[in-house]
Amino acid sequence: MKIEMKYGCNPHQKPASLNLPEPSPLEIINGKPGYINMLDAIGAWQLAIELKRATGLPGAASFKHTSPAGAAISRPLSDVYRASQFLGNKDYSPVALAYIRARGGDRLCSFGDALAVSDIVDVSLAKVLKMEVSDLIIAPGYEPEALEILKAKKQGGYLILKMDPDYQPPAMEKRQLFGFELEQKRNDVLITKEHFKNIVGAKKEMPAHIVETLIVATIALKYTQSNSVCLAYDGQVIGMGAGQQSRVHCTRLACSKADKWFLQQHPKTLAIKYREGLTRAEFANVVDQYLLWDELSAAERKAMLKGVVGKPATITKKEKADWIKSFDGICLSSDAFIPFRDNIDRASRSNVQYVAHPGESLRDDQVTKAADEYGMVMAHTGLRCFLH
Q1: What are 203-225's pLDDT values in tens digits?
Q2: Are both 251 and 353 inside the same structural domain?
Q3: Do both 16 and 150 map to the same domain?
Q4: What are the pLDDT digits (tens) for 4-56?
Q5: What is the domain extent for residue 96?
Q6: Residue 194 and residue 292 in one domain
Q7: Tens-place pLDDT, residues 94-109
Q8: Residue 144: its pLDDT value, please?
């Protein structure tokens, strides 16, 4: 079955179409997809459903530009986390919790996202989505009332896709580029706790909940444009460094995002008083600028202060470091081997305590020694997960 799409990657790239297998596992319930919409939807769906299969918990992925901005499994929200995400004291369903945590991993990057969830969309999740700027959702099904709420988004143009959770694609996949056709076996490897048993450093203890968080991080890397490094905490992605040519740049990017995620929950951040009339997205922008206060120009500081009442007390460098050090269980996973210890040195500043990478680098001993110096637990997965 062939479906005409709005356009390709850019508006001038017409015509564009989507060819579906017969019988089709995908149903377009509402809206008209574009080329990038479908790339994001397909990637996000695979990530969300794989999280569910690996952990048994509802999984969610928030995709932008063919990589996850966030991904998570369903777990309860603390009061501090709720406050940092501008949430009240409402009760949320398990599938809604999964998405709240996925989107909360990087609120700036999740703006206008492609959302995938592993479970049927209920009213709880639909009401969360009603408040957020999002381009599409893909899920295995929808409750009738939830579907009506979602159909009203974007003046009725919100893209709603239904995917058969039992669909299995062909073992081989093909790709055409510049008139050439490439073919390879699909990356159907299942990431399990067995991949984290080869602990190579001096410290050997890796609790079950840490393994589960490393599984989430590593599955997320499987669907992220390489090179990529992922920081995760409590079953959710909190910093994704994607598509960098140098691994240390991936690590720096992922760590800086994770640092901001933790600092969003700092008492001084939570004490910010916002001006009336700001949207949730504007709240997130104010927080992002506030946490970068020392790096802002005078004009940027002036613009940020327009969104708040008074001038918030800034967080000192020492306060930032002390706050990040107060969290236990911060994990890092890499989609390919860590080639130099500079990655570990940078990760240590973000209080990373658990590291997983494939191993088999020429400098494995140096990288492992660095992890030992910082008291990190390191596992070699033996599994590379490049995506291009």
Answers
A1: 999 999 999 999 999 999 999 99
A2: yes
A3: yes
A4: 999 999 999 999 999 999 999 999 999 999 999 999 999 999 999 999 999 99
A5: 2-163
A6: no
A7: 999 999 999 999 999 9
A8: 98
SS3 343: helix
> Domain tally for the chain?
3
Q: Are residues 90 and 148 in the same domain?
A: yes
Give the pair of three-digit tokens for residue 74.
């369903």
The token pair that represents 95 in the structure block: 């599938």
Tell me if residue 273 falls in helix, strand or coil.
Answer: coil
180 within domain boundaries = no
Residues 344, 223: one domain? Answer: yes
Q: What phi, psi does 47 have (nearest 5°)? A: -65, -50
Beta-bridged to residue 229, according to DSSP, are 241, 334
**Joined tokens for residue 329:** 């269980």
Query: Do 50 and 127 fall into the same domain?
Result: yes
CATH of the domain at 286: 1.10.287
Q: Per the structure block, which two tokens stand in for 385?
A: 């997960």
Sign of CA dihedral 353, 357, 359, 363: negative
pLDDT for residue 73: 98
Confidence of residue 89 (pLDDT cuts 50, 70, 90): confident
Q: State residue 69's pLDDT score.
A: 96
What's the rounded Cα separation, in Å, for the pair 387 and 131?
Answer: 32
DSSP structure string for 228-239 = EEEEEETTEEEE
CATH number for the domain that contains residue 206: 3.40.140.20
**Residues acting as catalytic residues:** 64-65, 227, 388
* pLDDT cut 90: percent of the chain above it: 97
